[in-house]
Write a structure and sequence with these properties.
Low-confidence stretches: none
Shape: globular
CATH topology: Rossmann fold
Bound molecules: 1-O-pyrophosphono-5-O-phosphono-alpha-D-ribofuranose, uracil
Helix content: 25-40%
Oligomer: single chain
CATH class: Alpha Beta
CATH architecture: 3-Layer(aba) Sandwich
Number of domains: 1
Distance between the termini: 33 Å
Largest sheet: 9 strands, mixed
Radius of gyration: 17 Å
Mean pLDDT: 96
Amino acid sequence: MKNFHLVDHPLIKRDLTILRNKNTDQNFFRMALKRVSSILAFEVSKNFKLNSFEIETPLEKTTGYDLAQDVVLVPVLRAGLSMVNAFLEIIPEAKVGHIGIQRNEITLEPIDYYYKTPKNIDIAKVILLDPMLATGGSGAAALNFLKKRGAVECIFACLVASPQGIERIEAEHPDVRVYSAALDRTLNEKGYILPGLGDAGDRTFGTL
Ligand code: PRP
Ligand code: URA
């Protein structure tokens, strides 16, 4: 798991408890997911490169900074949408693409149904957003798509990852660093993460 980065923070542990609890209602679930996503956004952007330039404060000249590289957020529909606003609050200059991928519930293989990404994706830092990395099928397919459209530098940010999912991303996309707020034990026979938090899309959007 050399490209895997576990984001460890007391507030993440507190919020993951809220997310994992089956009695958490939709509103608290969304709020906790957003808070964890904010911490992920700080961590993912920690090594972003900067341009420096001169600015003037009301008192004197000093050095200012902005991001040296464009950032493109790409949520995997639907559940990835729940992470977008938190990332945009931390990185407001980011553009947003969308990828629609849904797992076939029987084969667990991803089916794609929507793609729209910004033009400059080849020179941007692309951050794929999906709260769940289970078998890795959806994440691997989304990264294939992004690379076919020219993406070169991709990061995958998720909330809960399984060992199987991390291994698949590492095998198929060894250049992609995976950031996750949790590394769980395994998958069940239906491809759900254990202990996990259930179906992230359904719990976010109230479609249980
Ligand atoms: C979930 C989740 C990931 C995928 C993870 O989406 O948001 O995209 O499953 O599973 P995998 O790693 O085994 O591919 P789902 O297909 O349930 O669609 P949804 O977001 O519309 O609920
Ligand atoms: N998708 C989810 O939403 N949850 C899982 O545990 C696995 C895939």
